[in-house]
Amino acid sequence: MASTSETSTDSSNDSEKLFFDDVDKHVNSLNEKYREKTVIKKDTYEKILIALLLEKGKSSQTLSAKFIFWCRNNFLLSKIAGIDVVCCAKSKKPMYLYESFYTVISESHQNISHVGRQKMLAEISSQYSWIPKFVGEIFLKHCFACQVRKPVKQQVVPKPIISLGVMTRLQIDLIDMRTRPDVVSNDIVYQWILNCVDHFSKFSWAYPLQNKSASEVVKRLRELFYVFGPPRLLHSDNGREFVADVIQDLKVLFPGMDFVRGRPRHPQSQGCVERANGVLTDALGKWLTTTKSLNWSEGLAPVVYGINTRVASATKCTPHELMFGQKPGCDQEFWKIVQESNIVDEE
Questions:
Q1: Phi, psi for residue 177 in degrees, rounded to 5
Q2: Quick one: pLDDT at residue 1?
Q3: What single DSSP character describes residue 269?
Q4: Shortest CA distance to 57 belongs to which of 69, 41, 45, 47?
Q5: Looking at the predicted structure, is the pLDDT value of residue 9 above 60?
Q6: What's the mean per-residue pLDDT of the chain?
Q7: Residue 207 scores a pLDDT above 90
Q8: Contact at 8 Å (CB) between 309 and 320?
Q9: Do residues 71 and 91 touch, judged by C-beta distance below 8 A?
Q10: What percent of the chain has pLDDT over 90?
């Protein structure tokens, strides 16, 4: 225990020395006429005390009239326990010396449980005066606890979601677009996007929805399943639009499909589609800017196609290749030759 205490004391002394070295470095970088007044050292404090104790109209042989004028404009004397203490004229708070900076700031910082810069500076200014902001910022750089802080509560490492093949797990989620509705006509106003992502291949589908009712969601999912086949697992969050009775009817149409719900208020369990939501909305916004269009529903198809035909970081290949086993037809060498040869028909 003794060795631990000695190590802690040595570390504190080192931090204090480094703190004052950095403060001195900052002060010395200032214009020479500001150095003495930026931080008040002991000898300057004694001069201020003498200037404030001088009777009005009397001069001092050791202090200049300019210095005395500055002292009387910025400071005043206050008796605390019968002792004359120099206080800031504006805040009426005691002025602390340069030599006491580390101790004063350290106590204030510990009293408020090592919070950030703004709250620490507010705590210091509520009790003391003439401690510049840059001094508090330098102190934080030398606070060992703040530099190596670790949260008491450790995050639980989630188990990875494993998919064995294409369409073994389909993750679905809704993207709220009510702040930017797509008014196609008086009868058709899209306010939601149903985003579906195959967890294995990262292949995506996106459908505009007028509302997030169960019937609207099921209609789009049936279209997808009748073309690509139902997934082995349908994975969604705990929103009521996904657990309604109509959704359960999908199991009647596709009895081999199981339904998996993510944990409530835990987007990590839907990590793949949650990330895909951000990618889709970001790309859709850029499409709207590029095309100068106001109808984002028209951009879903080209944007999703672009996402499906670019390399995914998780799989190191495009979702299209994993889903169909080949590159998009327009990228094949055959069609490039056809285009270069200006062949317009088979004859």
A1: -120, 25
A2: 44
A3: G
A4: 69
A5: no
A6: 82
A7: yes
A8: yes
A9: no
A10: 26
Task: Report pLDDT digits (tens) over 219-257.
Answer: 899 999 999 999 998 888 756 555 666 677 787 888 888
3-state class (DSSP) for residue 253: helix
Q: Where are the alpha helices (DSSP H) in the chain?
A: 2-28, 32-38, 42-53, 65-74, 101-111, 117-127, 133-141, 144-147, 214-228, 240-243, 245-248, 250-253, 271-291, 296-308, 319-324, 333-340
Match 């369409």 to its residue by tokens.
Answer: 167
- Among 127-141, 228-242, 290-304, which stretch is predicted with the lowest mean pLDDT? 228-242
User: Could you tell me the pLDDT band of residue 110, with boundaries at 50, 70 and 90?
Assistant: confident
* Total residues found in the chain within this entry: 347
Residue type, 249: D
First to last CA, the chain: 93
Distance between CA atoms of residues 332 and 329, nearest Å:
5
Angle, vertex CA 207, rays to CA 289 and CA 169, nearest 5: 120
Which domains occur in the chain, in start order?
9-146 (1.10.340.70), 169-334 (3.30.420.10)
Cα Rg of the chain (Å, integer): 35
pTM passes above 0.70: no
Residues 6+ apart with CB under 8 A from 228: 167
For residue 174, give both structure tokens: 């809704």
Among residues 216, 183, 193, which one has the least CA distance to residue 280?
193
Distance of alpha carbon 199 from alpha carbon 165, whole angstroms: 9
Nearest-angstrom CA–CA distance, 118 and 95:
20
Determine the angle formed by the axes of helices 101-111 and 2-28, rounding to 10 degrees: 120
Task: Using the Cα atoms of residue 224, residue 227, residue 276 and residue 164 in order, give the sign of their dihedral.
Answer: positive
Structure tokens at 313: 């970081």
Place of tokens 């169909």: 324
Does the structure show a pLDDT above 70 at 181? Answer: yes
Name the token pair of 156.
């639980």
Q: Which tokens in the block code for residue 133?
A: 């902001």
Per DSSP, the three-state class of 172 is: strand
Which of 20, 28, 208, 191 is CA-nearest to residue 105? Answer: 20
Q: Encoding tokens for residue 217?
A: 């969601």
Instruction: Identify residue 118 by its one-letter amino acid code.
Output: Q
